Amino acid sequence: MIVCKFGGTSVQDAQAMTRLAEIVKARHREQPIVVASAMGGITNRLLAMAQTAARGRRQEALDQLNKIKDRHFREAQKMGIATGEDWVADTLNGYFKEMRDLVRGLSALGELTPRITDAIASYGERLSTAVLTQVLENHGMPAQLIDARKCIITDDNFMHAAPLFDVTEAAIVEHLRPVLKQGKIPVFQGFIGSTREGITTTIGRGGSDYSAAIVGAALGVDDIQIWTDVDGIMTTDPRMVKEARRIKVISFDEAAELAYFGAKVLHPATIIPAVRRKIPVHVLNSYKPEQEGTLITDEAPPCENPVKAIAFKSGITVLNVTSTRMLMAYGFLKKIFEIFDHYKVPVDVISTSEVSVSLTVDETSELWDIVTELKKIGEVNVENSKSIVCCVGDNLRNIPGVPGIAFSALNDIRIQMISQGASAVNITFVIDQEKLPDAVKSLHGVFFRKIDPLIFE
Known about the structure:
Blueprint: E1 2-6, H1 14-26, E2 32-36, H2 42-54, H3 58-78, H4 87-109, H5 114-121, H6 123-138, E3 143-146, E4 153-154, H7 165-181, E5 185-189, E6 192-195, E7 200-202, H8 207-219, E8 223-228, E9 249-251, H9 252-260, H10 271-277, E10 281-285, E11 294-297, E12 309-322, H11 332-342, E13 350-352, E14 356-361, H12 367-374, E15 379-392, H13 402-409, E16 415-420, E17 426-432, H14 436-447
Parallel strand pairs: 1-2, 1-8, 2-5, 3-5, 4-6, 8-10, 9-11
Antiparallel strand pairs: 6-7, 10-11, 12-14, 12-15, 13-14, 15-17, 16-17
Helix pairs in contact: 2-3, 2-4, 3-4, 4-6, 7-8, 8-10
């Protein structure tokens, strides 16, 4: 068995879905399970529609909804689907009726709650997978649509719900095993789930990758394939450095660091279920299915290059907390992190001295509430417009000379924070955002002058 996850660009129109069907057909003997995202851009349009409705602009929101409906029917009908009163047309019309009711309710209520946000956002995946199921049928592959909300059981932290793994894995086995035994292809929505009470939730933007890994882990599949619109994981973002190379094979630990620190190919949490079951993950290009992509595996082979890739995040805020009470005191860091825990804001990089703590965040919606709480502990200084640059490589911490090479590349750039040692696979720098392109290009230049042909292409 394999899981094939297809992102928004892989289901964005009739041409993309037809290409997807050919990819699945070529793997039919491997018992594929298809996990799909919403059509490209649809989730954003649904959320914009919901916000319009919540502002009381009901007719404008309904007009936005009609455009979304037109797009789905137009692309389906290009493939001979939803042209009459078939099940796909009935399903799509039912969803759009439900959304019209939600728009009317939102315009009257005037408030877009996280719970309603999840309800609205979930329709993107529900619409695309209804069409996709019939596409596979039309290509000679028996398929069955599975409601992911019956399988991915989560807590009620709407918009960022966490799967409850014991009940989720049992539900996945219960609903998918019989379909697979019948020789059918399960078609499963990414990104969405529900609480134990059946209330629709989402597991965060980019969560379709996570859904695919959860399904794969529950069923013990042989491979998890992430089909996207790039050739695989690259040594850095090719939009920043045109000389970026494709990485043929990379370890789970390296891929997880890259995903967390800004590489857009994978959702950061994707790796977790696969790591737990040691299931290999392939990142592949649905526009070039003949290419081998990138293999993410438990243990990658040795590499002559100490650094495998360079990731980065922009829009970072640095918080500096200073207090003489920290000197020779215990419990100080606990108090700081309890504040971030209360507001559910993750910290990326942290550096400490005798009387101060510096840390970075990229979630700023609760920033000033956090700063207010931190000021009860000490003086707080906020610095915006920073970037994180992260050099990732297996066992990087134990390779002599790597920090020196990195520092030489960043010789003309002010480094505000450095983190090495917390992870064996990365060295992280915090710099001014305006210097990010120079930093990434310079680091890539020194670490990839020569490449190991077994690892890079």
